[in-house]
Amino acid sequence: MKTYKPTSEGQRSRISSEFDEITTSKPEKSLLAPLTEKGGRNNTGRITVRHRGGGHKKRYRIVDFKRSVQNVEAKVVSIEYDPNRSARIALVKSEDGRKFYMIAPDGIKVGEKVSSGEEVDVKIGNSMPLKSIPVGYLVHNVETTPGRGASIARSAGTVVQVMAHEFGYTLIRMPSGEVRKVLENCIATIGQVGNLDHKNQKLGKAGRSIHRGRRPTVRGLVMNPNDHPHGGGEGKTGVGLKHPKTPWGKPALGKRTRKSKSSDKLILRRRNER
Fold this sequence. Notes:
Layout: E1 2-3, H1 9-12, E2 15-16, E3 32-33, E4 60-61, E5 74-80, E6 89-94, E7 99-103, E8 113-114, E9 127-129, E10 138-140, E11 160-166, E12 169-173, E13 179-183, E14 187-190, H2 206-211, E15 267-269
Antiparallel strand pairs: 1-2, 3-4, 5-6, 5-8, 6-7, 9-14, 10-11, 10-14, 11-12, 12-13, 13-15
């Protein structure tokens, strides 16, 4: 991690990545797509997600979460920065000439060979069905529905552990500590997602948050009563309510909002259970 001389208050507490693993600054043009910013607004122009807007212009990198190039060896061409995610991405070129992006696992180097399929070697960067992965191995990029593409453990430093195989399902331990069942035909990639030091970064100043497209958040406590349930009062008073609320009067901070899903029966242990 890179620290800075305290030439200003913003630099004093700033900690950023050194980008040592990045090998090129130019992305593959054929794998770019336009990314229009909505500013948190829906199709009618109303703000439906607050604190979004502005930020630096960026383009989307098309990442192959399905690892659709099967049973063909591919070579890692470069490790690149992706402005749309915390993990690094690797540009990979297969033997038949196809190029694709994949999430870069920790420890992968330029020039290494990776592949995907049911009978590939169990090594970092290779993708295969969960039933082919021995118990105890660490994986990432895990599918929840076969063929749908990875949706679990895709951000920097995340990892999932294979716990057991039973009755057509594989038990995995999630980054949160939750243990759940996933169909054994779902694919996963061996290894841990790279850029482990992402959690140690500090922006240092509000302006760097603005550059990322995050607008300021104003506390309800400092608003007027007509703008927020927490507003009003003389001086530095409290919320004035038994339970805190959202600007629209709904319970906040601790109220469980998870609705019952058909997949609840697949969760064997919740994340907060001992």
